[in-house]
Write a structure and sequence with these properties.
Blueprint lengths: L2 H19 L1 H10 L4 E6 L6 H5 L6 E6 L9 H16 L4 E9 L15 H19 L3 E9 L4 E6 L2 E4 L8 H11 L5 H23 L4 H4 L5 E5 L11 E5 L5 H17 L7 E9 L6 H22 L1 H5 L3 E9 L4 E4 L2 H7 L5
Parallel strand pairs: 1-2, 1-3, 3-4, 7-8, 7-9, 9-10
Antiparallel strand pairs: 4-5, 5-6, 10-11
Bound molecules: zinc ion (ZN).
Length: about 350
Amino acid sequence: MPAIHRYLLGLNERASEAFVAAESARARHRARHPTPLAAVKCMDGRVLFPQLTGTPVGLVQPFRAIGGRPEVFWPSFMGRLRHWVESARAGGHRCVLFLTYHYSASDPHLGCAGFDYDTGSARAHAYELARDLGWVFGEQLEPIVCGIETDLDRLILHGTSGEVDGGALVGATEAEIEASLLGAFPSMDPQIRGDLVPLVAGNAARVRALSAHPKPATERSHHERVIAVGQGFDWLHEANLALIINDADPDLAHAIRVASRILAKNMESAPAGDDAALVSCIPYHEPGIDRRQAVARSLGLLELARRVMREVSPALLDSGRLHAMAGVLFSPARRFERIEEDLRARRMTFAP
Ligand SMILES: [Zn+2]
């Protein structure tokens, strides 16, 4: 097995352990702060809510896509979102969706590659999506446009009359944070406002920690080694390791092309012993997805990704440095299961 696959499987094993270990912490947090939280995030691995907010792993449900660009007309994205919104509603709760964009205060090229480092257009997209989803789901959903400054991991929540900035609230009391939320979001449901306080407080603590001990320069730059296609990639949450592409994107080939170019560029400057990986994954044990369906989808996605990469980055594909792996994810434990080559041969024949 290629070293990078062993590395990734080890990463998943540790992440799965951490996810399972955080189960009680998540349950306690949800008992005190029941508002379901989700985030639309960029693919490039800089936006990690557990780190940003000091909340239990798995608390904020991620919807990832290249550049964080999902559109309201994407059928699969809206299907998943609707499912999430409806289960919140059935539990008697409104829900919060963060529409995130990210940038670096020190260097524009540490910003979002998916938006060609154009923070203005990334933010405009987040606003557009917030408006569209707000219209679709009405008062059931609170869409919040959210900027993330990645040097200090500052979280900035854009309200209707101002903003709540984790960086400006270092050392603030819970009452001061709640007042800041009330100022920026005067018409927000009080339950939601109260449930956002721990996230902002956690972010202020994160900013304080990073101000004292800044991230090393290598951690701040793009050095992704993995293209991940499909869903269920929370375990790849090691910053900047993976370019994650959600298969909800109806223009999947375009997303793979963009990611291929970024990976090919990264590999040009990578040390000789460094390899790259292409990974596909579909979670199962979720509503509407059983294991065989997940296996079939994951194998199909891997083939599609290979085909698209062949068009844009043939040199990378032929370099012998890119290792492909298909898998499925056992959702309740976030455990990645590699699909063995022999299963592909026996069960799944794609050849004509
Ligand atoms: Zn990005």
